[in-house]
Amino acid sequence: MNRALVVGAGIAGLSAALRLHRAGWRVTVLERSPRLRDGGYVVAFGGLGYDAAERMGILPALRERVLPSGELVFVRPDGRVRYRIPTSTVESLRGRRDLNLLRGDLESVLHDSVRAHADIRFGTTVTAIEQDDRRVRATLSDGSAEEADLLVGADGLHSTVRELVFGPERRFRLDLNHIASVFMLRECPSAVAGRSTASLTATGRTLAVLRLDDERSAAFFGYRTDDPDRQLALGPRKALPAEYGDMGWLAPDVLAQLPDAEPVYFDTVSQMRVDRWSRGRVVLLGDAAWCVTLFAGYGSSLAVGGADLLGAALERDSVEVALREWEARLRPEAERKQQLGRRVKGLYAPADPFRLWLRDLPLRLAAVRPVTRFLQRRLQLTG
Ligand SMILES: Cc1cc2nc3c(=O)[nH]c(=O)nc-3n(C[C@H](O)[C@H](O)[C@H](O)COP(=O)(O)OP(=O)(O)OC[C@H]3O[C@@H](n4cnc5c(N)ncnc54)[C@H](O)[C@@H]3O)c2cc1C
């Protein structure tokens, strides 16, 4: 029986584990965190990932976790409403084959589906990787060693597997000069009513408060920076008050919840440009390989869809041929989404009032049918 070692139990790693198990492989997963992460942020899950989830039989479980769509409310600094996009327009923009999910819920469904079939080791990572043309050997952080026919690096944007086998992160990372941060709120500010997302965009920064369902709400921060590494070094608890302390509106309420928030997602918005996603028997998957970014809104879909296509390719061919054909099939779609991410990056935190006005023009008219279709085309939504 073929053996796979998967590094990372995020969306990409758990999908790969499930799909390779279905392809008849014995799978071990290494996850650095002590346990499965929960919460996270909201992802729109459609396209290639939705089709793959249907084939993998996890769609019914995902449907049970779907967050209802809500209206989008865009406000002025004093909290007065500038304009709204009603729920019905949000739904028709996104189309029927698209689910609104918390990242943690998507991971938990994948974990439930695969945990009986794979050896998942939390609190463990990889410290060295060697390979020849038949096997790959990994040294683990607990001092043990594992051999496999294939090692899947699904360990995200700052991948250790990529660093060990492909080279330093700097060589591949294209910064889009923004920081994104999300955390779940203990208490949703009462100004955000019903199932809605309220957001304030000022020059170079956006704050959004999302009321997800009756119990859960989250805060999203997205801002421009010329020096993402400096922001990363500061970390969320210093950087967010410095960037948003003078914003007004709901910023003081939300920032007051930051000290106790756990976990806090805080990272650069960066793409990975890796010329080939495999080296011998080591393959990168998900954000480790391509990271299309939240601007493209498609990374979780590509992670699940990419894992499904990888499993299908390995069912048909030898590892060498499968990796080549898999990449030839997937790369055009990943690069199209990367281009989208670069093209729309200004929408989240427009650089000046004129660009903000330009951004808002089609959004204000989003409910008008031809404008809905224009937005679907521009944002590559399936509709
Ligand atoms: C704010 C935000 C909004 C987004 N919105 C959308 C959206 O609407 N639609 C969409 O499709 N996508 C969206 N995305 C993108 C999507 O969430 C990612 O593309 C997806 O989570 C990538 O999954 P991954 O498994 O490749 O990486 P990750 O989610 O980064 O998971 C990597 C896993 O590997 C583990 N790990 C890391 N290093 C190691 C190591 N050395 N050893 C072992 N384990 C390790 C981590 O703990 C983690 O569990 C969004 C992203 C953000 C930040």
UniProtKB/TrEMBL annotation:
Keywords: Monooxygenase, Oxidoreductase. Residues 4-314 form the FAD-binding domain. It comes from the Bacteria. InterPro entries: FAD-bd, FAD/NAD-bd_sf, FAD_aromatic-hydroxylase. It holds the Pfam family FAD_binding_3. The keyword Oxidoreductase applies. SUPFAM superfamilies: FAD/NAD(P)-binding domain. GO terms for molecular function: monooxygenase activity. This is FAD-dependent monooxygenase. It comes from Saccharopolyspora taberi. The lineage of its organism: Bacteria, Bacillati, Actinomycetota, Actinomycetes, Pseudonocardiales.
